[in-house]
Specification:
two-stranded antiparallel sheet, 6 strands, 26 helices
Length: 723
């Protein structure tokens, strides 16, 4: 088992180096080699899953730990259980599909060698995260994954791509550094970072601060509000295969971390569950609203990812509130993770088909492109119906489980109101409606995309004729890949007992649920009612908001989609960048200026004080020398004869002369130029402070904040150690 884990983690990274060398001479063979590596990775992941199920059983506690000791100081630890094995399979499957599609998509791209290099490095790092047995290993590969995937966003090197990439990297770095502080605090309080041991190690200890720090890092990667800003900026500019992986699988590494905190540190903790639930509701609703307002195809899908991450976080929060009766929430959270990963693989690759033919994504420009393309319409519809929660598609199953977990808790509070601590039954009903409305928003914006691309005609009739006449728009390999993946959704939805339920049985142990429990009747009237309600809300929102408000009729009879979202409601442009690049530097600069003035005053004071003391000592020594010469050691002549003292007086006199010479060469040397001396000292200090200021301005403010936080953390640890 250990050798198989090492191969799954490090084989793609080694393959990345070989792909780069091959690509320097043979680009075609490089493409085939990369695809072969991802196919092999998927095959090995399947072998790992099969061996786990048939040979070692399902160990929900994360057994089968293997360790590479002595690496990175604390060593690297990996473990296998049902959750980990399933998600490594999903990650490898998504990389395989994206790589096969990339052969056609990147046919006319520059810097493909660089892209494939970092694609395989990211694959190995992602697999390592899902297989990590301790948070130290998770953090190491988390950073590798973040830096390697940065290249995806910056791939075409346009100005907007580089700006989006800088946003992605800034969120990743700041989130990673805050996460590292959380790991410091957690290790100081518990003495371990091993995931299996965290629950027992944290019992009876207040680790909320450490957990919040870690949540910042994991939540930033997952795309949770308010650190979701990188998704709407990165996805529109990143290549479509990269967007599919960023949205579908890299966000799940963040969810993996959130699950470790929620299910291994705060298992059945109502306080933490409440916090995650509120965070999930905000993320779910805000992401859906952003998606509805967007008029860019890929940006809509990116904002949709934010919303779907919110659905998952709602499930994670409900796990804490429901306690030991959280079966529906556990299974719903895991299955929606799986569903969302596969939905976004299909939807972003469908967007990639549009982009590689038109090099446009604005709905007004790509309008009508898919009217005569039944296969592309089918592929998109499978993903849209799945993510919209349509009955008989897989998304309906996971959303039903999540919805019913909310209903179950609301009914429990209504029956036993005295047990309500953070929410009343009415409050949970409000959250239920937020859930249903968010599902309705999902239906509305997916319908908006479908109607714009596959139903309506383009405003330019000549352009529409060109779209309709285009028959070859996708290679046979791309058609096969997209069709195969899109067929998974109705198959899993119709045969949920043989597919999704089995996956949930594998994954639930990681979240503390040991038994499968009774099967859920997904298509009972009570369960269908929630899905139908969301669909009805979505239809109403599409008609009222999209058709009547977001579409404007032109004088020539045509219509255009309008971006109604206010520009000033942009967290990055109107909050994060002003705070981090203007307010914070001004504040720090003001504090440094005050300290600089204070040091100037202190310096002048000490220079003046030193001059006074030196003058006083000079006068005293002069007087002492005069007294010695007039008494103990006389150096004047009387009546032409030299008066000599005895040996002692002679020695004292010589010493006095030496002191006098020393004073002449030190304190008295520049006495006439005392003002110049003080001026030189002041200039030297001013130059030093200017150099320090230049160095400080050249440093990353994120690094400065990290250093400040690190100092505070170390002081905290030292104080705790002293106590």
């Amino acid at each position: 088992m250990s050798s198989l884990i090492y191969i799954i983690v490090f084989m793609p990274m080694m393959g990345a180096l070989f792909s780069y060398m091959i690509g320097r001479k043979y680009k075609k063979y490089r493409d085939y080699f990369v695809s072969s590596v991802t196919v092999l990775e998927f095959a090995l992941a399947l072998v790992l899953l099969v061996r786990l199920v048939t040979g070692n059983g399902i160990d929900g506690a994360g057994g089968n730990v293997v360790e590479l000791s002595g690496i990175c100081g604390m060593g690297l630890k990996f473990a296998v259980d049902g959750f980990r094995a399933v998600y490594v399979c999903i990650a490898a499957f998504m990389w395989m599909a994206a790589s096969l599609f990339s052969i056609e998509y990147f046919a006319h791209y520059r810097n493909r060698n660089r892209y494939y290099l970092f694609q395989l490095i990211t694959l190995g790092a992602t697999a390592a995260i899902f297989l990590s047995a301790d948070l130290y290993t998770t953090f190491v590969f988390f950073e590798v994954m973040s830096f390697a995937s940065y290249v995806w966003v910056a791939q075409d090197e346009r100005a907007e791509s580089l700006r989006a990439a800088s946003t992605y990297l800034a969120v990743a770095v700041i989130g990673g550094l805050v996460m590292l502080m959380g790991l410091f605090l957690l290790y100081a309080q518990t003495g371990t970072l091993e995931i299996d041991k965290l629950y027992e190690a944290c019992r009876g200890k207040n680790v909320y601060v450490a957990a919040l720090c870690m949540l910042v890092g994991f939540g930033a990667k997952a795309g949770a509000f308010p650190l979701h800003i990188w998704l709407p900026k990165a996805h529109p500019v990143a290549p479509a295969p990269a967007s599919a992986l960023l949205s579908g699988i890299l966000t799940k590494t963040g969810i993996f971390g959130v699950l470790v905190i929620s299910c291994r540190i705060f298992l059945h903790d109502g306080v933490w569950g409440t916090f995650i639930l509120i965070l999930g509701v905000l993320t779910m609703v805000i992401g859906a609203v952003l998606a509805l307002f967007s008029v860019d195809f890929k940006r809509t899908l990116a904002c949709s990812s934010v919303s779907q991450i919110g659905f998952i976080l709602v499930g994670v929060g409900m796990q804490g509130l429901l306690g030991e009766e959280n079966r529906l929430a556990v299974r719903g959270s895991f299955l929606h993770m799986v569903n969302h990963s596969l939905f976004k693989l299909v939807l972003f690759m469908a967007a990639g088909v549009i982009y590689m033919n038109l090099h446009k994504l604005d709905l007004n420009e790509i309008r009508g492109f898919g009217r005569k393309k039944p296969l592309l319409r089918f592929i998109y519809l499978m993903g849209a119906l799945g993510i919209g929660g349509m009955p008989l598609w897989s998304g309906y199953i996971s959303k039903t489980l999540l919805h019913e977990s909310i209903v179950e808790y609301a009914e429990e509070l209504a029956e036993f109101p005295g047990e309500a601590v953070f929410f009343t039954a009415g409050g949970m009903r409000a959250i239920e409606w937020a859930f249903l409305v968010s599902g309705g928003l999902t239906v509305a914006y997916m319908t908006k995309l479908f109607v714009a691309v596959f139903v309506e005609k383009n405003a330019d009739a000549a352009l529409q004729e060109k779209y309709d006449a285009q028959e070859t728009y996708m290679s046979p390999l791309s058609k096969a890949v997209l069709t195969a993946v899109s067929l998974l959704f109705p198959v899993m939805g119709m045969f949920s007992g043989l597919t999704l339920d089995k996956l949930a049985d594998l994954g639930q142990g990681f979240m503390g649920l040991a038994e499968a429990g009774e099967k859920v009747s997904y298509f009972s009237f009570g369960n269908l009612k929630g899905g139908i309600t969301s669909i009805a809300i979505g239809a109403l929102l599409y008609v009222v908001v999209v058709r009547l408000w977001m579409i404007k009729k032109q004088e020539d009879g045509s219509s255009v989609y309008l971006n109604r979202w206010p520009r000033y409601i942009d967290l990055e442009e109107y909050f994060y960048r002003p705070v981090l690049l203007v307010i914070l530097p001004a504040l720090c600069g003001g504090i440094c200026g005050i300290l600089d003035k204070l040091m100037d005053v202190l310096t002048k004071f000490f220079i003046k004080a030193g001059a006074v003391i030196a003058g006083f000592l000079d006068t005293v020594t002069d007087a002492l020398v005069v007294v010695l010469r007039k008494t103990v050691y006389r150096d004047y002549t009387k009546m032409g004869e030299l008066k000599e003292g005895n040996g002692v007086t002679h020695f004292l006199g010589k010493a006095a002369n030496l002191i006098n010479k020393l004073l002449n060469r030190t304190l008295r040397k520049n006495r006439p130029k005392e003002a110049d001396y003080e001026h030189k000292l002041a200039l030297g200090y001013s130059g030093l402070m200017e150099n320090i200021s230049i160095i400080t301005r050249s440093l990353s403010y994120g690094l400065i904040l990290f250093c400040i936080g690190l100092c505070i953390t170390l002081i905290y640890l030292l104080v705790g150690a002293v106590k």
